[in-house]
Design a protein that fits this description.
With 189 residues, the protein is an alpha+beta fold. It contains six helices and ten strands, in the order ααααααββββββββββ. The protein has one domain: Jelly Rolls (Sandwich), CATH 2.60.120. It has a six-stranded antiparallel beta sheet, with helices on one face. The protein has a four-stranded antiparallel beta sheet with strand order 4-9-6-7.
Amino acid sequence: MSNIVDPLVGQIATRVRVERELRRWTLVQLAEASGVSRAMISRIENGESSPTAVVLGKLSAAFQLNVSELLALAEQASDRALEGEAVEWRDPDTGYRRRQITTATFPAEVAEIHLPAGARVSYPAAAFAFIRQSIWVLDGHLTFHEGAVVHELDAGDTLELAEPAPCVFHNTTEVECRYAVIVARAARP
């Protein structure tokens, strides 16, 4: 196993454990709710493995949080975030990079995403529950699958997501795609 250099690994590990314990779930219960293996959750909670974007999507959906919210909660504990510096998270599987632009006190979450050439990241519909989300492509081209609907987005294009659906962010080009995700809370039942 390679050494993990992502500065957020420890904060993500702590946040996943905290969210699981807040619900009084065992590792097995979280594994069943998320579809992520108990062994992988254990490695994440122990800081032995950095979760991929897909795994974070499954865990956040089980917690009824969105990925942005789960990462923002983890980032809040970072010394760099406490000093006002933006913290970047990198998906060890795809190279996808995410940097939170706004602080936890701002009423909407804004994140900048760098999606490498050829990278594909998918999230379950539950990862988008209780939020309204807009995507704004800043550079490059993004093929975005919203359920069965496919959107082809170029620099300057925006898209507001409809009802929660399984989503795939796919960079089908040979150059990096950079986009912003703007998330606002929707009412919870």
